[in-house]
Amino acid sequence: MKTRVYLTIDTECREERPLPAGLQPLAGYDARIWGRFVNQRRELGIRLLMHHFEAAGLRATFYLDPFSSLHFGAEGLAEIVGEIRQRGHDVQLHAHPVQRHPDWHSRDITPPSDDMADYSVEEQTALLEEGMDLLVAAGVPREDLVSFRAGNFGSNNDTWRAMAKAGLALSSNYNPCYADKGMKMHQAGPAEQLFDTQEGVWELPITTIREPSGAPRHLQITALSLLEMADALLQAHRSGASEVTIVTHSFEIYHLDEADPPRGRLNHINFFRLWGLCRFLAKNSHKFEVETTADLVRRLRAQDTTVATPVPLPLRGRRALRYLRFAEQAFKRIEKKLVVHSPFA
Q1: What is the DSSP string of 46-91?
Q2: Is residue 344 domain-resident?
Q3: Which domain holds residue 230?
Q4: Which pLDDT score is estimated for 189?
């Protein structure tokens, strides 16, 4: 059997953030989603991502936060939705409640919590319904909205209950890497692959490997090297895993140097990882099938899939590949500091 792979992109703007060095300004559609920079001839955001997905014959799921449209404008959100859907990819609901007031610091107001887990079931349901309404107004047919991911993975078991109330069938929030960073979901049984929450929704967990220390590390473009992701995918296939879920963001393949006016550069390590991952999946199409979360929900509703036996052991990170990742991460940190202000790059 093929292992199904889900390429998921959290697509969002950025709120103001107080930092020790000063206030980090908010960043809108151009800076955080399109990657449109005054010092670049080409865009480095979602169009570049989609280009490489499509070149490898792959389709992805974009978890899109709609709340930023309350500040940055509904027209810009509709442009993003239209581009993604016209190219055959999937748009699903992402939620950063703080984006309802991204300029909270300048306005001297207290920001809302950005973690869904901090809200009651009723409040979470209302946020989900508001987010869906905004996406529908931006051009996503209501019947196509079937899945949800919380910002920061900041969800809990009440999130499943709120999703059921809002009519969303598939959660993709369970991420053990965030167990101490806002993710408060608890699952008694195995949670490495798709499982029934018994709350009226299914959960598609984020795939992780176990570091030599025993700590989990998720399959995210910025977190693992290409060799580590490929190795984890092959381990999953050999073990009989039914699903692997990979995460990235709309802004992970570039360095954002300035938000206003937007200036940035390619993040060469992350770009190479994404480029290589696409080609690895295309080359190994006899082992892996890439589909969207909407495809998965259609099969679940048609009873065209079953929950597979959990992987017997966690996917193991390899020490040698980990050391290579350390070198790559060091290169990224150096590259990020080398801000270049040339007219075009």
Answers
A1: HHHHHHHHHHTT---EEEE--TTHHHH-HHHHHHHHHHHHHTT-EE
A2: no
A3: 3-337
A4: 76
- The pair phi, psi for residue 243, each rounded to 5°, is -140, 145
Confidence of residue 310 (pLDDT cuts 50, 70, 90): low
* C-alpha Rg value of the chain to the nearest Å: 19
Q: Are 165 and 148 in contact (CB under 8 A)?
A: no
The per-residue pLDDT for range 119-163, each reduced to its tens digit, is: 999 999 999 999 999 999 999 999 999 999 999 999 999 999 999
Token representation of residue 85: 């859907």
On whether residue 307 sits in a domain, the answer given is yes
Residue 326 resides in a domain: yes
User: Could you please report the per-residue DSSP string of 115-141?
Assistant: -GGGS-HHHHHHHHHHHHHHHHHTT--
What is residue 180's predicted lDDT score, i.e. its pLDDT?
80
Place of tokens 């050999």: 238
Does residue 174 lie in a domain region?
yes
Q: What is the C-alpha separation between 215 and 212, in angstroms, rounded? A: 7
Q: Tell me if 113 sits within 8 A of 99, measured CB to CB.
A: no
CATH no. for residue 202?
Answer: 3.20.20.510
CB of 56 within 8 A of CB of 45?
A: no
Count of domains in the chain? 1
321 closest CA partner among 234, 251, 240 = 234
How is the chain split among helix, strand and coil, in percent rounded to 5? 40, 20, 40
Contacts of 112 (CB under 8 A, 6+ apart): 97, 98, 100, 101
